[in-house]
Each structure stands twice: as structure tokens, then as C-alpha cells.
Write a structure and sequence with these properties.
The protein is an alpha+beta fold and 145 residues long. It is built from three helices and seven strands. The longest helix is centred in the C-terminal third of the chain and has 25 residues. It starts with a strand and ends with a helix.
Length: 145
């Protein structure tokens, strides 16, 4: 498995509100710039997404892929893995939320292996950029309501 990258951000909101935004996949194209399409393919007994198909476009990069999600029982974490993808061989990710009063630390862990070889330094830089953007956009969406 590829190395993981991890980043965190503090959001001025309770964990349940943040997790609600994370779980609202249909709204991603409204606030996460790279997503051009999102479709929930299946849901668990509790109504949470189990498999989600994504289409992204960021500059010259276009990709479509499907992720499988596992939600923690206490609502503080969600993990995902790649089911299938065009440009990716594997993807493992996690959002973990730690609430402290009215603020919550969101920790994002990501590991991606592309179908084409990429030097580790460039891959980690790309992961960092993806995580920076995702965390900033998530924070903006949650705090603006």
C-alpha cells in the first residue's frame, strides 16, 4: 500500500454538522470545485451512502471513480476505499472528527496509487494539494451554512 498523507483543520461547528456535509454527496458539486458529478449508487440500512460514483475535472485532469464508504457508529469518522477507477489503482481515505466545545478538528488521511507510475515526491505533493483544497472547501461550506 502507498504511503499516507494526513492533514487537519479546525472548523467552528459541531461534529454532527460537519459529518452531515460530508455525507451529503449530491451537494458536492455545489461547493467542491473539482466535482462535476456525484451519484450515490447504494445505501446501507441506515440510509448512509455505501458506494458513490464521482466525476472530477481539475484543469487538465479528468477522472471518474467509485468509492465504498464505512461509517463509524458514533458519527465521528468515515473511511473509504476505491472500488473502481480510471486513473487510480487504489485509494484509501478517512475523515476523523474530534469535537472540543463548539469547534471540531477534522483530520483527513489519504493514500492514492495512480494507474500510471508517479514519483513519490510528486504524488505526496498532489495528495497535499487535494487535502488542502478539500479541507478548506469543507470548512467554508460548514461555517457558511
Amino acid at each position: 500500500m502507498a504511503d499516507e498523507s494526513t492533514q487537519s483543520i479546525v472548523v467552528d461547528a459541531p461534529a454532527d454538522r460537519i459529518m452531515a456535509v460530508i455525507a451529503d454527496f449530491a451537494a458536492y458539486p455545489e461547493w467542491a470545485k473539482a466535482f462535476t458529478g456525484v451519484e450515490v449508487l447504494s445505501r446501507d440500512a441506515g440510509g448512509r451512502a455505501e458506494q458513490v460514483a464521482f466525476a472530477i475535472e481539475s484543469g487538465p485532469v479528468k477522472d471518474s471513480y467509485t468509492l465504498a464508504y464505512t461509517w463509524s457508529d458514533d458519527g465521528t469518522a468515515v473511511d473509504w476505499t476505491l472500488v473502481k477507477g480510471q486513473m487510480q489503482r487504489s485509494q484509501h481515505g478517512r475523515y476523523a472528527l474530534t469535537q472540543d466545545g463548539d469547534r471540531t478538528t477534522v483530520t483527513y488521511t489519504l493514500s492514492v496509487q495512480l494507474a500510471v507510475p508517479m514519483i513519490g515526491l510528486f504524488r505526496r505533493k498532489a495528495e497535499k494539494m487535494i487535502m488542502d483544497t478539500a479541507l478548506r472547501e469543507l470548512k467554508r461550506r460548514v461555517e457558511r451554512g
